[in-house]
Specification:
158 residues; alpha+beta
C-alpha cells in the first residue's frame, strides 16, 4: 500500500469533511458535555483560513486518489520570562484516519511526516492533547515514541 503525504488544498474540503465528522463524533460520544453534535464540525471558511495561515499546517494522506487521513498542526511560541524558558512547539490539533484504513500505517506515516516537518522548523517539541478515554489513541502515540508530559484534571460542577 503506497501512502503519500501532501499539503491539504482548498478542493480537499469535501473529501475531508467525513473524516472531520468521524473524529468529532468520537469526541461528542466521549464528552457530550463539551462537544456539540454537529454534522459540519469544521466549516469550509474555517478550513480555508487554516490553509492560508502560515502557522497552521494541514497534511493529508492519500492512497491513489483517495484521501485516507489527515493531520492538523499549529506552531506556538512561548516567550521567555522569569518563570519559563522560550519555546517553539508544533501542536497536533487533530489526527484522523478513515476507519477502513486504520492499523495500516496511515497514522504512523502522517505523524512521522509531522515529526520530520517539525525538525525542519527547529521546534523544541511536538505536542498534542488526547482524551483519557481514547485508549487506542494513547496506545498509538506511545507506540510512536510519544510520552505523557502532563495531565489536565477537572471537577464538573454542573
Amino acid at each position: 500500500m503506497d501512502i503519500s503525504i501532501r499539503n491539504a488544498e482548498q478542493n480537499d474540503y469535501e473529501f475531508l469533511l467525513p473524516l472531520f465528522r468521524q473524529v468529532h463524533d468520537f469526541h461528542v460520544f466521549v464528552r457530550p458535555d463539551l462537544y456539540k453534535d454537529n454534522s459540519t464540525p469544521v466549516e469550509q471558511e474555517f478550513f480555508e483560513s487554516q490553509l492560508i495561515d502560515d502557522k497552521q499546517h494541514i497534511f493529508v494522506a492519500t492512497i491513489g486518489n483517495d484521501i485516507v487521513g489527515f493531520i492538523v498542526t499549529n506552531e506556538e511560541e512561548t516567550t521567555e520570562n522569569s518563570f519559563v524558558k522560550a519555546r517553539k512547539v508544533l501542536v497536533i490539533n487533530s489526527l484522523g484516519v478513515a476507519e477502513t484504513y486504520r492499523k495500516k500505517g496511515v497514522g504512523k506515516k502522517l505523524t512521522q511526516y509531522v515529526f520530520n516537518f517539525g525538525g525542519n522548523l527547529s521546534v523544541d517539541s511536538i505536542e498534542l492533547g488526547v482524551s483519557e478515554e481514547n485508549t487506542s489513541a494513547i496506545e498509538f502515540y506511545r507506540s510512536i515514541g510519544m510520552t505523557t508530559k502532563g495531565r489536565k484534571m477537572e471537577i464538573i460542577l454542573n
